[in-house]
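Fold it.
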Amino acid sequence: EKPQFPGASAEFAARLEFIQPNVISGIPVYRVMDRQGHIVTPQEDPQLPKELVLKLYKTMTLLNTMDRILYESQRQGRISFYMTNYGEEGTHVGSAAALEDTDLVFGQYREAGVLMFRGYPLELFMAQCYGNANDPGKGRQMPVHYGCRERHFVTISSPLATQIPQAVGAAYAIKRADANRAVICYFGEGAASEGDAHAGFNFAATLECPIIFFCRNNGYAISTPTSEQYRGDGIAARGPGYGLMSIRVDGNDVFAVYNATREARRRAVAENQPFLIEAMTYRLLPGTALSSFPRGPAGCLRAAGGDASRSIGHHSTSDDSSAYRSVDEVNYWDKQDHPISRLRLYMAARGWWDPEQEKAWRKNSRRMVLEAFEAAERQPKPNPQLLFSDVYRELPPHLRRQRAALERHLQLYGEHYPLQHFQQ
């Protein structure tokens, strides 16, 4: 006799026994390269062409350079806020390379490398962080809240996990349109504790949506270590409970990330089902893997407060991670398992990269970032009138009254505002 209950597939049991949380051994971490850049199993090598591997590496290192300069500019008060991507570059470019250009991306706030891989120009990264007149968002978002319709990258919003059910809705719409596209939704393991994550997982599974949930598990949700966030086996272990195909990968191995995302994307589109990828990584030091880079524009961007390496992988510029983890812990990950250095070792072993090329690329990438940085600083802020635009097709009466009140106020008291720094 078998149970006929509609809510589960199971057998009857005659013995009272609760299921222990550790009854199943930990989900293994899929990898392709070891920490020295050697391919572990030749059959798993994606055999990417040299040009693509170089693009992966240059995107990762360019992102690292941009992070350092914008991080230091925030410390000097040039921008209001910033979030770095140190240590997680492999999750960005490995997954981005595995997608089609038309696949829709819902980021959290640490996926700038995905947008960079898709060709988003440095000038627009800088414009957004400065909120200047060239900012596509017209200065109305916090820094690092990028978006680009042309590159199918949905504008980032600050609240944790709100993008997860939105991404599922987009994936369901794509399924109904039979559009041969997928959606990828990025989030951290801390965001996976939000109710939106659980709702999104359940909707995606029951509606059979072509979506990839990509969780960056970097060990900390701001200041909360994973040991205090959950008692289960990470995030990938939750997938089967919701009916999601799931895998855990080495997020510091760009090829493992690429392989997992590529296969998940193929099957999500072909089979209309959701996938969950948990990429294990670590939030690293500002400037790691490129530590010999100069400190920014000569004479104007020295690291505030001394050597930037003393700042250990903060969640954002609003955070001080030295309060909840040790320098030794961070240094271990920096020296033993960095995604950039691992890929560099792989390239060097094949004769695709050498110290001279490294030196030239460092110099060139720094120059490109600084040129975009300096150009962004010279641009004025957006016109204050833009406060009222882009919400309604026709400006409603209450906003017209507010706009008129602002104009009167600036006519009377304009000398007290730095209007010369705003676009006229």
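The radius of gyration is 23 Å.
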